[in-house]
Amino acid sequence: MGIKLFQVDAFSSRPFGGNPAAVCILEEPRTYIWMQRVAEEMNLSETAFLIKEKDGYNLRWFTPTVEVELCGHATLASAHVLWEQGFLKDDEEAHFSTLSGWLHAHRSNGWIEMDFPAEPAVEEAPPKELTRALDVPITWVGQNRFDYVIEVDSETTVRALIPDFHKLKQLPVRGICITAPSAASEFDFVSRFFAPSVGITEDPVTGSAHASLGPYWAKRLGKTELIAYQASRRGGIIRVGVEGDRVRIGGQAVTVMQAELSEITCLADERLERTLAM
After folding, report:
1. What is the pTM of this model?
2. What pLDDT, on a 0 to 100 scale, did the predictor assign at position 273?
């Protein structure tokens, strides 16, 4: 029997919106090389691999080129699949052991709410390579362990931005998050996220970035409950709650495809190892 694979549009209530992620539920451990090759084959911004453990699920995330330490939309997609496919009961919480520690998720009124560690950015002077790559009016620049966070002058600037991706790729960070106050009353702030250094030109909706954006805008706006919009072509709505050193990140999700990896693919671990060792 092949391994089941699901494609889920995360941070969306309808197909073909939000950020697509692949979710692969494993019955036994697989090698790093095999998981990376599957992620490359899927060619989505993230593919999540889950395996059951005593206290929850081990969860790993891969872009088409690298494994990453934290990913929001593929965590949301993973939790969605566990409930939808009956691996968890409707009232059960999802618990994930990850490279960023334990992450948790629960259902609430048709939304999935995730509990993430806060990742506040620390203000710093922007490097010349960053300002040249963006070439827009910059209000504030900060950096956390993953990304640069840049506030610009307006939502219009966020939406119109066409960065120099070659220059962005040279920066020693996972991604570059551009943000501004929302011009629409239903949202508090907007953002876009670029990560060419990990194989993603523009990420449609980036849950993990809101672990940094949440604390930033909570302080700027004087409120701890926020509604955000990531203004990519696909777009997505994110609910954000800031509680000390934790951030609640909420979204919706819909499964758009279910497939099965072929038997030859499932048996490819040893062949891949031998091929790459030659």
Report:
1. 0.92
2. 54
